[in-house]
Amino acid sequence: MSAPPAPGSPATTPPATKQTAPASSPAGPAGPAAPAQSTGPAGRPSLDWQLRFAALSLIWGFSFLLIKVGTHGYAPFQVTLGRLLSGTAVLAVAMVVKRERLPRTARTWGHLAVAAFFLNALPFSLFAYAELTIPSTLAGICNATSPLWGMALSLVALSEDRPTRRRVAGLGLGFLGVLTVLGAWQGFSGLDVSGTAMALLASLSYPVGWIYVRRTLAGSGSSTLSLTGSQLLLGTVQLALVTPLFTSAPNGFPLWPTLAVVALGALGTGLAVLLQYGLVTEVGPTTAQMVTYFIPVIATAAGVAVLGEQLSWNTPVGALVVLAGAALTQSRPRATGASAPPRRAPGPRRRKLP
């Protein structure tokens, strides 16, 4: 949400177009209609989508670990620039293979520039800066709050997203989980406030971008791959202009941080988007977007197992509460079947002629 979407997710959630209906991240407001599903001979989606679903969960879940490793050798802006360069390269190859064309109108490019800032340049940079002072596990859990921010913003910005009791309850439950993760009853002792605030701000940036995309780029006439590839390109340009102003050239290219940044972009930002497109087409956005709920679990496990980060009881407990609240905010009322046509009121009975 990329961290993609995030991170890592889910972060490059693609704009909606008339040709294709991408998965709306669970962090965003109501998503577009699901595209037609590809099914096997038995009328069910082919089995290998589950493997791709697992791969996508792992890629986005490990993105926070890769960010942490990348910051061991590079400045945060440099990590983000390398990530966007690698991700853009992957999508550029995909566009060439599929013979996709870039958007042609200046209006579309202008909206994509704004989307690139809120969905890529800003959150990617904030997560990189945040992980200078907070564990990757906490960054991954903060990323899971995007659905909560999306719900809160949709109540204001999207009039068609009417609140329900269940969704409002999910919003309150989710933020209770955030307070549990942060240890509010302890006065947030031992918590790096600035790093945590940057991670939460990054999570807030995603739904801001999704709402903007939904209002400006729906029905633009370009394919989803073309729009997302162009969006990443603009994000790369934005970071290429900013990075030299705030950082100096690295003295070298340390092996592990360099590999982490390349993997973060090529896998977590490039390949992950392509996997997500395939899942949405095959099993629909409702199933595909469930990947977001595995990201904090995998990010936490990776941070503890690989980086040796410490984990107190309130972190996993609060994360579960956050995920439960996020799931409630994404719930929709069950669609009712087509109602029978209204019965005509009986008219006066006609008397038979003798």
What attributes does this structure have?
single chain, 354 residues, 12 helices, globular, disordered N terminus
Question: Overall 3D geometry?
Answer: globular
Secondary structure class reads: mainly alpha
Unreliable residue stretches: 1-42, 337-345, 347-354
Which range does the strand content fall in?
under 5%
Order of helices and strands: HHHHHHHHHHHH
Number of strands: 0
What is the count of helical runs? 12
Main beta sheet: none
What does this structure look like?
The protein has helices at residues 48-70, 76-97, 106-130, 136-143, 146-157, 165-182, 193-216, 224-246, 255-283, 285-288, 295-307, 314-329. The chain is mainly α. α6 (165-182) runs antiparallel to α12 (314-329). The model is unreliable at 1-42, 337-345 and 347-354 (pLDDT under 50).
Element layout with pairings:
Blueprint: H1 48-70, H2 76-97, H3 106-130, H4 136-143, H5 146-157, H6 165-182, H7 193-216, H8 224-246, H9 255-283, H10 285-288, H11 295-307, H12 314-329
Helix pairs in contact: 1-4, 1-9, 1-11, 2-3, 2-8, 2-9, 3-7, 3-8, 4-7, 4-11, 5-6, 5-7, 5-12, 6-12
